[in-house]
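Format notes (please read before filing issues)

Several people have asked whether sequences and structure tokens are stored in separate files. They are not. Every record keeps both together, in the order shown below: the sequence lines, then the token lines. Line labels are part of the format and must not be stripped during preprocessing.
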Amino acid sequence: MSVQPAGAEPRERANGLNREEGPPLHAQIRDILHRQILERPLLPGSPLPTEEELQKQFGVSRSVVRQALSGLSDLGLIRRQRGRGSVVAAAPVLRRHIQRAGGLDEQAAAHGQRLRTHVIAVEQAAPPESAVEALNTTNTWKIERIRYLEEVPVAFMRTWVPRDLFPHFTRELLENASLLGLMREHGYHPAGGPRQVQAVAAGADLAQKLHTSTREPLLLLQGVTRDALGHGLEWFNVWHSPNTVFDVDAQVTSQPGRVSQEHIRRLRNLTQQLESELADLERGAR
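Then the structure lines:
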């Protein structure tokens, strides 16, 4: 019977694996490499250890290593190249305009990208207090969705919509569909509404959904969408992964105190000329 030195790790955890319990070995290896990519020891473009090196590192068969790499490839985190090994893939960047309400699919398409939507849940649930005021009802659907860009999760969306307006909403209907597009199809035309953006830290649940690490900074977009008559159609929270860029079209406004006297003089002359021409036209009309 061997005795390990004080403070030594159990043998089954010495290489990060738990061989006695827990997920399959290929899933454990996939998650270890996943964490290394997220925490940036493995940067985009850097090569992963070879299959043989991973076999020796983890003490597993080549088939287990290949399953782990296949899982990372499915997540869009690595690129596997025949004869050249695997390299860490650059995370796709989602770009969106903060001034636009909805149209995320169209914005991605404008950059040659395609978004996919997976609906986690559609259930009857009362909204938060601030949403009750915006929607003027407590009879709402709570809809949870994940948006994927190139198979990488880029946004988790939690939305409340009035059930009286949209009693027909189901998971099947919303899967890979535009929520605002469905509203238009049923006679309600979203016009926009106030939004706010703030940085928040990812909790364990959000980190799992967005394949990021706990306490990673996320961008939270929160707001309400109304129709042209002011009726609340949705109240939402959207947590964006760190690889999201918000484009803002900023405009410089003129300050009244900084208008030059020369500019004022020109405007007065132009006004006098217009008044003179209008007087001539009125006399001619008589």
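For reference, the curators noted about this record: Residues 1-12 have pLDDT under 50 and may be disordered. The longest helix spans residues 261-285.
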